[in-house]
Write a sequence for this structure.
């Protein structure tokens, strides 16, 4: 019998997909010569299945956020306060720090 993912696991999995897509966008930008102050257009990593929001964050800010594996960026208001806390924000993004044991980081 196939095991069905729990909601928290599914949420973490979708967040991880967005995080990987955002990493690829970052790598493409840097390979193309992007400077730290240039903006990246990233997918919201909130993990909501229906979310199609995008946000802007500079290359430098992206590096600072993702230096901590438990931090990720979401569209304002999309943080799930049961799995993480908003620790910083920009004009069109929020930085979330995932709680340890809350279904993984993204």
């Amino acid at each position: 019998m196939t095991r069905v993912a729990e909601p928290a696991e599914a949420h973490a999995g979708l967040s991880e997909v967005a995080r990987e897509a955002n990493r690829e966008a970052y790598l493409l930008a840097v390979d193309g010569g992007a400077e730290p102050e240039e903006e990246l257009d990233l997918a919201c990593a909130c993990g909501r299945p229906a979310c199609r929001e995008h946000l802007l964050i500079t290359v430098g800010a992206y590096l600072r956020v993702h230096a901590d594996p438990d931090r990720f960026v979401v569209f304002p208001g999309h943080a799930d306060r049961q799995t993480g806390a908003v620790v910083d924000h920009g004009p069109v993004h929020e930085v979330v720090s995932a709680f340890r044991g809350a279904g993984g980081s993204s």
